[in-house]
Amino acid sequence: MNEEMKQKNDSIKFPRTQPPGRVYWCWDISYECNYRCSYCRVDTWRKTRYISVDKWAKIWDKIYENYGSTHIRFSGGEPFIYPGFNELLVALGQKHTLNVTTNLSFDVNEAARALAPIADRARLVISSSYHPEHVKLQDFIDKVLRLKENGIYTSVSIVAWPLFMKEIPSVKKAMEEKDIQFQVIPLGGQFFNKYYPQGYTDEERELLSWLSVNVSNKASKDMFDFKVNEGDRKTKKRLCRMGMNFGMIRPNGDVFRCCTFDKRAYLGNMIDGTFSLLEKPAWCDLEQCFCYKAMIVGEEEKTERDWNWERHKTGLYSVEKKPTNEEIVAEYEEIKKRGKTLQVLLDNCDSDGAVKLLEQTMAEFPDNELPYLYLSEIYIRAGFFAEAKELLEKASKFTNSEWAKGFYFRLCGYLHASLGDIPAAFEYYAKSLKISEDDPYTWFHVAKTHMKTGNINGAVEAARKSVLLNPHITAAVDLLKDLEADIS
């Protein structure tokens, strides 16, 4: 790894110590594009200022001196049609980390050779966009795989264009069969005399919601919530670190504090040398916030999470290492052990202690679903159904074992039963029992749900199965005694 990437804060003129701890850029290097997609509304009329790679390198060396190693996400337009773009990436990748949004229309073999000096996920990620109007699926997948074979990590996204939304599940399947990370992006703008994403039909919205939590890229759910569930974000004046830890660069070199062309957010021009970042948070006067991940003061934990602080705080991407089977088993066993401690806390009515234990476990094992599942169970018991549902949705993103899937389905059943949706509850219990028909806790919940419908015989049968499988579940034993007393 290039030693310059490990630059210490004391050698940086204006170090960023507040979350997310470094500067992030979105650089629309040009709005020119060789595709004309039906769903794209890029401002192609906005002019691009072209300067040499050497001049850009000097500008970004100055950025490095002032702010240290920053993260640059290129977009457009199509970045790879910018003259000398491969050389620009190599020059900037010596000191900064890079991400490029691209349609992959370029020669990937040539790019792989040119980008070999920075072909390391710690420096470069390609975020490719699949456009069915212009390229065949298999040809696109072949390009992605060729880049990955050459050490260039490449993910894929697709815009949820209504005319091919029904094809997206098959695209998802094809991508994930090849271990390609896949993301779905909601449509934005006016099409078919409707304004999207609000213009989606109920059926389209339901499919998009399902895709958002079932594709391999977890950012899909956050983007769905931001663009579809939250809708237009009318906001009050807010104190924000956009412009301090983030800059939006336009094709002519103009820099704005966030994703807008509003002059109130203007910071100067990078090419002309009139630009500098803010040195402290500033109030945002814009009436509507378009920032997918705004850096609001007072929401530092959210900022760290949204901007992948744990991955980026050293100036690098962390390479995701797949755990061994032994490591997975050890992790689950540790969390299950804590689950027993959790049960003791709950038995002693120490709900605060139980929640604290689970929050600590979540922080220690952020990609394991068990802490989310345990905490959702506590919330269901307490009647906090919205909070429980949110936790279950998070857990659904990474169900790493069959046992955990069974636990997840059981809790979904418990939640639906608590909300009075008995048919849905039994559907989820059936899914849980299909994974493990010998789970005494699921049978206990089946018994409790039968009682809600007045099906005493069904409740007795399920309670007996629960006690037979585990006679130490006190609640099941007591329930069976009460039921047998009622029918005797």
Any descriptors?
elongated; 2 domains; TIM Barrel; two-stranded antiparallel sheet; 9-stranded mixed beta sheet; 13 strands; 18 helices; alpha/beta; 45% helix; 488 residues; disordered N terminus; Serine Threonine Protein Phosphatase 5, Tetratricopeptide repeat
Polypeptide structure, described:
With about 500 residues, the protein is α/β, with parallel strands linked by helices. The protein has 2 domains: about 5-160 and about 235-310, Alpha-Beta Barrel (TIM Barrel); about 325-485, Tetratricopeptide repeat domain (Serine Threonine Protein Phosphatase 5, Tetratricopeptide repeat, Alpha Horseshoe), CATH 1.25.40. The chain contains 18 helices and 13 strands. The chain has helices at about 55-65, 85-90, 110-115, 135-150, 170-175, 200-215, 220-230, 300-305, 310, 325-345, 350-365, 370-380, 385-395, 400-420, 420-435, 440-455, 455-470, 475-485, and strands at about 25-30, 70-75, 95-100, 125-130, 155-160, 180-185, 190, 195, 240, 245-250, 255, 265-270, 280-285. The strands form 3 sheets. It has a 9-stranded mixed beta sheet with strand order 6-5-4-3-2-1-10-11-12, sandwiched between helices. A two-stranded antiparallel ribbon has the order 7-8. A two-stranded antiparallel sheet has the order 9-13. β7 (about 190) and β8 (about 195) form a beta hairpin. The protein starts with about 25 loop residues before the first strand and ends with a helix.
